[in-house]
């Protein structure tokens, strides 16, 4: 019974992830494409839930839907002519992107089939135990990758500030009569 | 003249005393009824039918979702009435008083009116987004109530990462607001949607950090466990030096997350014609309202669980205490709403990034140290 439920859940989550993903790349409206990402990302969170990786369910919702998707939508809404039908809505590099993604898919499929999978039968533990274990691993064994990731994010943050700052006209270009030149 | 004034004053005092007495009797009756109801439900829980439903995974999920969805929808009827009465009291007027006892059925009448109203979709609107936006706003609200503990056993799903889950899901409301703002194809709606998005993204950061401060003190992320730890002393009393500033920050950020005054910029009536839901009417409009009030109850409930001892209290059963505390906190939020004027947009963002984020980080570090000291 439970096995059947798991299969049903897996199939419906796969549909929930892949069909919206196809819509994301095929719809001609950029804002719609952004909103189609929502069911796709929820589907991925569902896969984590099916694997009982509780922490990743929450992080998937918090980071990918709550922050990244909202940020993408925000950027879209600040972009002009998104709804203009005269604007070209498809990616000119579609073919090459497809080829590269296909190669990546083949490579990962190759790795997946070659990997000597060990059948995992033990219960992964409840959410609290998992979170404690993950937290300890992040500050002990995986401290270096964790810190490297935070340095990367910090660099991105600083770069964003630098880009935003340089849009302002330099203070020296303000003339004696208060007229702003350049910029 | 003086005599007439005196009698008028005495009359008013008599009326006020009568109202207060009636209110106290009514409140006592309500609490007694709630306690009886609690024990009745606890007895029903032990019957074989309910036990069978509880053991079957799918039936259990459906039954719990059904109960939570109904609670979310129905408690708002009371909250809206209460807000209107409270606002009336704050502004020295009466509020609703004609439909039902003291206007108690006014919200029901309004809901029926909204149900019967024509569902208008503007011709130039982005049809599909416009149609789904109210549900995108409402769905996260429903999900958050699944992990809100009314008592140790009265909780939809005892999730080990409840506090984090509740935060993660509740911020997704901003996507629905963006969909509404964009879908309506109206400049006021779009401005409101963009404001809501920026605001929720910004205030989510200090809100999450203050919740983490509580987590650091309690040593667990589960809302049920955090509540259960406060059986003797509330967090805000037991860990007062760190928890009082944390609660103040939490309350400010929660008001901003809920888009409530003084942070109601996304729907500022005087500048944006009610912002992202300008174009909505009928039941779709009602969904926005429903979500707003339900979110309000949820945020207050989260604060009660984190700071005010959850469901613990003398005499009355747990869920009743939880509801009393939560409605009390909701009332405090209404008090703020009808007292404080609105922020300006630039003030709002600056206040969050330059004041709240550093302050919440300081509180978090202090809480971590305090937690280490307490646990030692």
Description:
The complex is a heterodimer of chains A (183) and B (376). Among the domains of chain A are: 1-82, Up-down Bundle (Four Helix Bundle (Hemerythrin (Met), subunit A)), CATH 1.20.120; 127-168. In chain A, 70% of the residues lie in helices and 0% in strands. Chain A contains 6 helices and no strands. Chain A has helices at residues 2-26, 30-50, 54-78, 94-114, 127-139, 143-165. Chain B is built from 15 helices and no strands. The mean pLDDT of chain B is 83. Chain B has a domain at 117-374. Chain B has 376 residues and is mostly helical. The chains are: A mainly alpha (183), B mainly alpha (376). At the A-B interface, helix 2, helix 3 and helix 5 of A face helix 5, helix 6, helix 7 and helix 8 of B.
What keywords describe this structure?
heterodimer; A: 183 residues; mainly alpha; Four Helix Bundle (Hemerythrin (Met), subunit A); 6 helices; globular; disordered C terminus; B: 376 residues
């Amino acid at each position: 019974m439970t096995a059947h439920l798991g299969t049903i859940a897996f199939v419906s989550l796969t549909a929930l992830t892949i069909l919206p993903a196809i819509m994301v790349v095929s719809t001609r409206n950029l804002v719609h494409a952004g909103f189609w990402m929502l069911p796709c990302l929820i589907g991925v969170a569902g896969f984590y839930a099916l694997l009982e990786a509780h922490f990743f369910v929450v992080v998937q919702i918090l980071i990918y839907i709550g922050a990244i998707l909202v940020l993408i939508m925000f950027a879209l809404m600040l972009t002009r002519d998104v709804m203009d039908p005269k604007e070209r809505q498809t990616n000119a590099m579609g073919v090459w992107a497809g080829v590269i993604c296909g190669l990546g898919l083949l490579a990962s499929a190759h790795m997946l089939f070659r990997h000597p999978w060990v059948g995992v039968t033990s219960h992964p533990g409840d959410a609290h135990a998992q979170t404690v274990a993950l937290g300890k691993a992040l500050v002990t064994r995986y401290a270096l990758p964790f810190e490297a990731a935070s340095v990367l994010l910090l660099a991105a943050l600083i770069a964003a500030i630098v880009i935003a700052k340089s849009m302002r006209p330099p203070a020296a270009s303000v003339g004696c009569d208060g007229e702003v030149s350049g910029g | 003249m003086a005599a007439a004034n005196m009698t008028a004053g005495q009359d008013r005092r008599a009326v006020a005393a009568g109202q207060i007495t009636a209110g106290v009797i009514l409140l006592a009756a309500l609490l007694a009824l709630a306690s009886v109801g609690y024990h009745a439900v606890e007895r029903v829980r032990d019957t074989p039918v309910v036990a069978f439903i509880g053991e079957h995974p799918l039936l259990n999920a459906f039954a719990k979702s059904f109960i939570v969805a109904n609670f979310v929808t129905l408690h708002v009827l009371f909250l809206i009435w209460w807000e209107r009465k409270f606002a009336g009291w704050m502004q020295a007027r009466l509020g609703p008083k004609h439909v039902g006892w003291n206007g108690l059925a006014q919200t029901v009448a309004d809901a029926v009116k909204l149900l019967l109203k024509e569902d208008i979709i503007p011709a130039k609107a982005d049809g599909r987004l416009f149609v789904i936006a109210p549900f995108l706003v409402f769905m996260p609200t429903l999900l958050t109530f699944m992990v809100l503990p009314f008592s140790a056993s009265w909780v939809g799903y005892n999730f080990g990462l409840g506090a984090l889950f509740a935060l993660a899901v509740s911020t997704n409301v901003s996507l629905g607001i963006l969909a509404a703002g964009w879908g309506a194809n109206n400049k006021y709606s779009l401005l409101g949607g963009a404001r809501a998005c920026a605001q929720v993204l910004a205030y989510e950061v200090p809100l999450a950090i203050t919740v983490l401060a509580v987590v650091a003190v309690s040593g667990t992320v589960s809302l049920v466990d955090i509540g259960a730890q406060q059986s003797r002393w509330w967090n805000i009393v037991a860990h007062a030096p760190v928890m009082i500033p944390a609660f103040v920050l939490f309350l400010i950020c929660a008001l901003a997350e809920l888009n409530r005054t003084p942070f109601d910029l996304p729907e500022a009536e005087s500048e944006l014609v009610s912002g992202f839901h300008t174009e909505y009417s009928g039941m779709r409009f009602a969904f926005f309202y429903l979500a707003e009030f339900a979110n309000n109850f949820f945020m207050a409930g989260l604060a009660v669980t984190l700071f005010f001892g959850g469901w613990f209290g003398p005499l009355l059963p747990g869920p009743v205490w939880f509801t009393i505390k939560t409605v009390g906190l909701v009332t405090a939020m209404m008090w703020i709403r009808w007292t404080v004027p609105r922020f300006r947009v630039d003030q709002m963002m600056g206040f969050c990034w330059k004041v709240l984020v550093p302050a919440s980080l300081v509180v978090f570090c202090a809480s971590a140290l305090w937690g280490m000291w307490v646990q030692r």
